[in-house]
Amino acid sequence: MYSKTLTAFTMATQLLARALAQDWESAYSKAQSALGRLTLSDKVGIVTGVGWNPGGECVGNTHPVGSIGYPSLCLQDGPLGVRYASSITAFTPGVQAASTWDLDLIRQRGQYIGEEFRGTGAHVMLGPVAGGLGKIAEGGRNWEGFSPDPYLTGIMVAETIDAVQGVGVQTAVKHYILNEQELNRETMSSNPDNRTTHELYLWPYVDAIHAESSSVMCSYNKIHGVWACESDFAINTLLKDRLGFKGYVMTDWAAQHSTALSANAGLDMTMPGSNWDGGDVYWGPQLQTAVTNGQVPESRVDDMVTRILAAWYRLGQDSDYPSVNFDADVAGNHAENVRACARDGTVLLRNEDGILPLTNPSTIAVIGSSSVIGRHARNQCQDGGCNDGALGMGWGSGAVDYPYFVAPYDAIDERASAEGARVVLSSSDNTASGASAARGADVAVVFITADSGEGYLEVEGNRGDRNNLDPWHGGNALVEAVANANENVIVVVHSVGPIILESILSHDSVKGIVWAGLPSQESGNALVDILWGDANPSGKLVYTIAKQRGDYGTQVVSGNDDYDEGLYIDYRHFDNAGIEPRYEFGFGLSYTTFEYGNITIEAVRPIAPGSATGEVISGGPSGLFEDVATVSVPITNTGEVDGAEVAQLYLSYPPSAPATPPLQLRGFDKVRLAAGESGTATFTLRWRDLSYWDTASDTWVVPSGSFGISVGASSRDIKQEGTIEV
Ligand code: BGC
Q1: Residue nearest to atom 9 of ligand 1 (CA)
Q2: Is the peptide bond before 272 cis (omega within 30 degrees of 0)?
Q3: pLDDT class for 281, splitting at 50, 70, 90?
């Protein structure tokens, strides 16, 4: 009953928002007529923030303009829920949601996040993250985004934007662009070549703009020596001209460095003021002066304001938008989505001798400091910036306060007692007590973690980026001690990204590895679902787990970054360099087995080689987004239990294309199948999926020749192959 009422509420909010939402054209014409009633000082007020948290709530705010009924816009972090609010949901981080490969869950997550922003009166959600893509495994904020694969990230970013904006909340997709590490993020320059920029780092922004994100947040770093927030190339040329972006570009917080230069490069809003405390260092009166003395044309300020007002009108925020109230209870039944993403994003990496699901153990040892609740989960640390106890998300502006936290030990203990089993707990990382708890237990479950976050906080010597890819708190030694004391060990990993597992895998008694990722507030509940087999694991890795750190070929740099690895990041690099990963991109086990049948490839329309055609719509030339082929593969659940398979499609380019990674993800489909049931995985290829960025013509080009289509259970477990001729 409770959940039915909320569903009705959800539907009503959506219908309302959809009814109010308008196309850009009518929103622009409303904005233009409002513009006529504004003074220059009103206009400057709309584009300049008034500081961080002036009312104790939103991290970004602008001047209201009474004459047109425009409020002080409330901008708030962040990608996984409403920051600094109390009765909210701490959704799973992007990387966890992505590991489900489940677009229904991603969409629902976006919608619920949107409802919570709307319910607290925040107009703009500062997210989702389309990049930092995560080219460096240690990158501190990778977990806020989805995956180092641009295709996967692009799809998830678009679904999220569509869902959040579907309930009338603006998105500010971030951090544009090439902000891949925390070290020196506010001083360094990222210098990739043009093709790499387009095919990897711009790719998900194309999806974001195509999904009509209201805003884009420019990043702290420089691009080829020019600040991202005053880069004419990044903002005017790429975003506004080539991608046809109709919304507005805002700075990351205090990422502005000039008055006229940034304005003329296409920047539309400065946050949180033009510096941290809302002082008007660059805009505010300075912008007004720059207009008066002719350094910035007034038409440019008009364009900024038109874009900002149009985004606000387009989502119907001018009508009955709730006022800001961060105490509003907006959580509803949204925890169901958290539990589902935590559960279905859990990746089973090892399962020997059928150790999982558990079969009526009478004693279970639970070991490790991260099995129990810590200070972060009790909200005793700023932005999650401490790291004891269970890990549910990383730290920084992308973290929210937990409304509650179900720790693994508590959920296991409850479930075990219901089954008549006894739990022995060692709640520290002390090897001797871990071994002693494990001795004599039927099964020992050891918890290890690795954490990272935003660089303004240092946690245990890690200033945002991780210092290495090892488990924290002596995780390897703890597992070794337990593995020497018990023959049936399951290691549960809560981590922001890959860790090196070689030491752990060397112990024969480690029979299970459960990659539980970042499960947020529903950690223990989701884990119990998997351990006892109430749910069949169906998550797959959204990054590669290497055998050794050096295998990744990218690292945090101390100066500028020339992106020498080019297109070869994550699995693209492992495949190209012939390096065997420990667990490849797309890998994940199940409690059942799946069989793939014969591939069918059907052309939707003839594909001619050459440059993208069509007028520029949101995202680029319209031809980019046309469907060109469908691929389908029957899949049968051949095991004893119900399950879900994430089938993946990888594309190989014909020899006429310039050197390209051997395989690139271009489709995925999560197929749920009861035991014995058959279904079909289907993939739709768009024109852009077959294209590469041609630097000579500065266009997306589809080369001629034979494209390889590989469909499989992971990037290295290809089951079916075919070709598309162009
Ligand atoms: C972060 C942004 C965030 C902003 C406001 C910055 O430090 O990079 O992601 O939205 O702060 O909190």
Answers
A1: 397
A2: yes
A3: confident
Query: What is the Å distance from ligand 1's center to 102 Cα?
Result: 28
Question: Does the beta carbon of 589 sit less than 6 angstroms from any atom of ligand 1?
Answer: no
The C-alpha atoms of residue 674 and residue 641 are separated, in whole angstroms, by 7
Q: Going by CA atoms, what residue is nearest to atom 6 of ligand 1?
A: 253
Please report the pLDDT score of residue 382 as a whole number: 87
**pLDDT at residue 21, rounded to an integer:** 59
Alpha helices by DSSP H, listed for 120-183, are: 150-166
With tokens 């009508």, the residue in question is 319
Cα separation, 35 vs 33, in Å, equals 5
User: What SS3 string covers 363-414?
Assistant: EEEEECHHHCCCCCCCCCCHHHCCCCCCCCCCECCCCCCCCCCCCHHHHHHH
Phi, psi (5° rounding) for residue 236?
-70, -50
| CA 479 centroid distance within chain | 30
252 CA distance to ligand 1 middle (Å): 6
Q: How many CA atoms lie within 13 A of 649 on its CB side?
A: 29
What does 195-230 look like in DSSP terms, one character per residue?
HHIIIIIIHHHHHHHHTT-SEEEE-SSEETTEEGGG
This prediction has a pTM of: 0.97
Please report, as a single letter, which amino acid is at residue 396.
Answer: G
Both tokens of 246, joined, read 């109709």
252 in contact with ligand 1, CB cutoff 6 A:
yes
Among residues 372, 398, 368, the alpha carbon closest in space to that of 385 is found at 398
CA distance 514 to 447: 10
Does the CB atom of residue 365 touch ligand 1 within 6 A?
no
- Amino acid (one-letter) located at 115: E
Q: To test the ligand 1 pocket, which listed residue (171, 182, 252) has its Cβ within 8 A of the most ligand atoms?
A: 252
The phi and psi torsions of 206 (rounded to 5 degrees) equal -60, -45
- Residue 608: band (very low, low, confident or very high) from pLDDT cuts 50, 70, 90: confident
Q: What is the mean pLDDT of residues 350-356?
A: 98
What is the distance between the alpha carbons of residues 311 and 518, in angstroms, rounded to a whole number?
A: 33
Q: What are phi and psi of 601, to 5 degrees?
A: -120, 125
Ligand 1 centroid–CA 77 distance in Å is 7
| Ligand 1 contact via 126 beta carbon (within 6 Å) | yes
Query: Token match 């043009």: residue?
Result: 194
The set of catalytic residues is: 252
Q: How many CB atoms lie within 10 A of CB 593?
A: 14
Spatial neighbors of 659 by CB under 8 A, at least 6 apart, are none
In sequence order, which residues have a C-beta less than 8 Å from that of residue 366 and are 6 or more positions away? 408, 409, 412, 413, 423, 424, 425, 426, 437, 445, 447
Ligand 1, atom nearest to 83 Cα: 12
DSSP per residue over 692-704, as a string?
Answer: EEETTTTEEEEPS
